[in-house]
Amino acid sequence: MPIRPLLACLAALLLAACASEPTPPPNAPAPVKPAIAAEPELPAHMRELRGSLRTPPAGSEVEMALLVVDERGRPQQLLASAQLQGDGQALPFRLAFNPDSFPAHARVELRARVSQSGRLILRLPPQRILQAQSQTLGELPLVNAP
């Protein structure tokens, strides 16, 4: 039997054995995976509004916006927005905004609308936001859309 093919086979087996991951000893505890954060960290220069919307229907589309509005309630500037999916339960939200873009002495409101199958069904009555700082708004009720 020729030795050269046998040596080539042994060298390949040796390389394959070295390339595989080492097996842990039988008594060693299983490696612990780090916990994955549910929400990304907010950058230091940003602020946020947190809360939840009371029970938008399952399958509904929720659009939220933080707006600068004029004295007649018309939107003038968009500061932040988010789109969420309703699941029939309280829907948590987190709306990040830059406090530097928050105008002094202007009216700022949080608004939301809920639509299903392209039809507006619910809305959030405008929530006035007085300060450009992080706030928890709690559970906000939705009302029927006109």
From TrEMBL:
InterPro entries registered for this protein in UniProt: Pilotin
Keyword Signal: yes
PROSITE patterns in the record: PROKAR_LIPOPROTEIN
Pfam families: YscW
Alphabetic keyword roster: Signal
Signal peptide annotation: 1-19
Protein's UniProt name: Lipoprotein
Source organism of this protein record: Zestomonas carbonaria
Upper taxonomic lineage: Bacteria, Pseudomonadati, Pseudomonadota, Gammaproteobacteria, Pseudomonadales
